[in-house]
Amino acid sequence: MRCTIGVDIGTSSSKGVLVDAGGAILAQATRAHDVSRPRTGWVEMDGGNWWDEFVALSRELLAAVPDAEVTAVGVSGMGPCVLLTDQDGEPVRPAILYGVDTRAGEQIARMTADLGVEAITRVGGSALTSQAAGPKILWIQEEDPAAWGRARRIFMPASWLAHRLTGAYVLDHQSASQVSPLYDIDREQWHDDWWQRYAAPLEQPALLWAGDVAGTVTDEAAVLTGIPEGTPVIAGTIDAWSEAVSVGAHGPGDLMLMYGTTMFMVFTRSVATGEETLRTPSMWTTAGAFAGTRNLAGGLSTSGALTAWLKDLTGSDYPELLAEAEGSGAGARGLVLLPYFAGERTPIQDPDARGVIAGLTLAHGRGDLYRAALEATALGVRHNVQTMRDAGADIRRIVAVGGGTQGRLWLQIVSDVTGLEQEVPRVTVGASYGAAFLAAGAVSDPAPAIADWNPVVMTIAPDPALAPVYDTLFDRYLRLYAGTAEVVHELAAQQRADDEKETPA
């Protein structure tokens, strides 16, 4: 049976799927893991674990379907991450994760002062924020000189897996465009002058598109994974873009909402047909997963991470909390929550933002808090969508994907808060499925169509009767952040100072 494997390295778990030529999932496997948070604002992971989990997942998938004939391998992963290795591909330190890691504030400020916001935005598409990988490379150079002295190559989860499988040293254009400001988005190539200034002596990885073949499985990798030697492996890309592929949300005017540990949004334009590349300081402009596409992207630093925190804090389970949250009703009985428990990415770009819960009384229970958390993520989505539209995004279609789509309440709250209809496809496992689809496209003639693999099966429409409630709540949400920012920033500074006292030099 001809199949493709797709594996995604996520923030809280790695997931793998084995998919037949028609898009049916034959087997799934998951490995849970944790990130390391050694200091406030630092989020790291051991890159070696990514390969170990890939090996375990591939063997489990192949054992589940003994007659599987693997024709290609797809990879994806969270990002943009910074995993530096030596010349032999051995990591020199833990990987620094994407925008939830906010350590490089000083490097962002210095690079911005050195190069100028206008030049950075013109070349890279976006102003420098905690999402940009370039300042994190500079942070390692300045703050971890021992590791920097050994570093020769840069990887992200997808490119690391492709390297371990094939020996190739590549990075896809979409991921490269988030190594800002070291990638020229209009020319679709590395910006050599700035690379030499900030990233030398790192070797520049060759650039491919997400579905391009990076190489074939080596004999050594075949022995470890069970995947036959010579099997093609694609370059892959960052998980949110692979998720967009998995549900067909990568056409002009499409917006993907990814419900995961964090919430991610990707809006697509086609520069191949003459549409303008959108740039705005509070969002991220990137290359797309496919040639000729550009994206305006945004992300909340917490969504599923926030609901998991509340579940663990209250000692409850999700069905209990969802039932109680539904009973709480729109507005959570007078609560408004800011979901900035790990700082915030777009559109406020404030790594020192913190969570706030306003309106609490002794009459409130855990269901009200859970409802307020779901509504907070929806309010964050509304803030991002409004910012995208203000920048010129003509959003025509919204597709939901990710683990959070399994519960209808969260989907309904997002539609009610934003006033937007969402399409939900049959398969919502996410990035690993998108990676498997891209792999199939790389070795099939003709390439499969995602509409055939993964048709839309449900549409979530907003309740117009709730629009006044959520218009008022959104106004309070914006004013609560503005009104508490000064105190919250003081608390964030205190948290950093306390960390430094507790962390050995």
Protein model, in words:
- With 505 residues, the protein is an alpha+beta fold.
- It folds into two domains: 239 residues, ATPase, nucleotide binding domain (Nucleotidyltransferase, domain 5, 2-Layer Sandwich); 233 residues, 2-Layer Sandwich (Nucleotidyltransferase, domain 5).
- It is 40% helix and 21% strand.
- The protein has 17 helices and 24 strands.
- The longest helix is centred in the C-terminal third of the chain and has 36 residues.
- The termini are far apart.
- The mean pLDDT is 96.
- This is Xylulose kinase.
State the major sheet.
Answer: 5 strands, mixed
Number of helices: 17
Return the structural class: alpha+beta
**Count of strand segments:** 24
Sequence stretches where pLDDT stays below 50 over 5 or more residues: none
Radius of gyration: 22 Å
CATH class category of the largest domain: Alpha Beta
CATH-wise, what's the superfamily of the largest domain? ATPase, nucleotide binding domain
The appropriate CATH architecture of the largest domain is 2-Layer Sandwich
The averaged pLDDT comes out at 96
CATH fold-type name of the largest domain: Nucleotidyltransferase, domain 5
Approximate strand percentage: 15-25%
Ends apart, CA distance between termini: 56 Å
Residues in helices, as a percent range: 25-40%
Strand line-up of the largest beta sheet: 3-2-1-5-15
Protein name: Xylulose kinase
InterPro entries: ATPase_NBD, Carb_kinase_FGGY, Carb_kinase_FGGY_CS, FGGY_C, FGGY_Carb_Kinase, FGGY_N
GO biological process, one term: D-xylose metabolic process
Organism: Microbacterium azadirachtae
